[in-house]
Amino acid sequence: MSFAAIVVMTLSLSAFGALIFGSAFGRALIADVKEKVDINVYFVLNAPEADIITLQKDIQALPEVSSVEYVSRDRALSDFREKWKNNTLIIQGLEEVGGNPFPASFNIKAKEPGQYGAIADLLQNKNPTTDDGNPIIEKINYEQNKIIIDRLGRIIPLVEQTGLAVSVILIVVAVIVVFNTIRLIIYTEREEIAVMKLVGASNIYVRGPLAVSGIMYGIVSALLTLVLMAVFAYWSDSLILRFAGLETASDLTLAANIVSVYFVSHFGQIFAIIVGAGIIMGGISSYVAARKYVKV
């Protein structure tokens, strides 16, 4: 029965470990998706750089804005040449055009996907101009990205809420399973408990060893769970690579950071959560089961 209790608690605590990894992976995935979404502001070719810098400072000061990256005309040309340096036809076409055909631009990232619309509206309403009244903004590509941004604005909160609900359900199920297993163990010891009561043992004296046993089950199960989590973290790169059907190591950057590196960098917190959960589940389950079901 003790072996069964340890196995059940190990499985339950492994569910906690899966929630930890899943939560960390989900947060990183959502953050990665948010990082890849932005809107671009393209300026006219003769827009004064001083006016562009001033506008950048104004946008950066907005509470909805996370970052504003300024891409100058020279940098845009350099990036284009670097990207297509192995394509002779494109480079020759660029040379035939002559000069620098690329405008300066902003890459604007909002703190939340739902805030891009407000930023785009503000830029359009502000309509910054030069000293002689000519507009400096040629195009804002928010409308092209609007469908994707709106969908992310709806999907991301739904994913976060669903993950929270699933976590709560799994935690409740794990606690119920552990409690019933401990209750069964105590039920098998009902005769020993009855004898202890007959010879004058107090309730605390009877429940104390049972609670300590539950705590020991929790500690042993927690250590086994940490070993399993460490093994999974060690092999996670290749496992996720095969599961996701990825082919290159670069595709695995997100998974590696979240599983392998996350486990090592947050080991203290994970250790405290797993061991603490094991002790609490084992100790409280034993105490409550002894009091309620054996009628000590």
How would you describe the overall organization of this protein?
There is one protein chain. The protein is α+β, with helices and mostly antiparallel strands and 296 residues long. It is built from 10 helices and 4 strands. It has 2 domains: 2-34 and 151-293, no CATH class; 37-145, 2-Layer Sandwich (Alpha-Beta Plaits). The longest helix has 47 residues, at 142-188. The two termini are 21 Å apart. Mean pLDDT is 78; it is low at 246-252.
The residue fraction in helices comes out at over 70%
Classify the beta-strand content into a percent band.
Answer: 5-15%
Number of helices: 10
Number of domains: 2
List the helices and strands and how they pair.
Elements: H1 2-36, E1 39-43, H2 49-60, E2 65-71, H3 73-83, H4 88-97, E3 105-110, H5 116-126, E4 137-140, H6 142-188, H7 190-198, H8 203-244, H9 253-265, H10 267-293
Please summarize what this structure is:
With 296 residues, the chain is α+β, with helices and mostly antiparallel strands.
Keywords:
4 strands, elongated, alpha+beta, 296 residues, Alpha-Beta Plaits
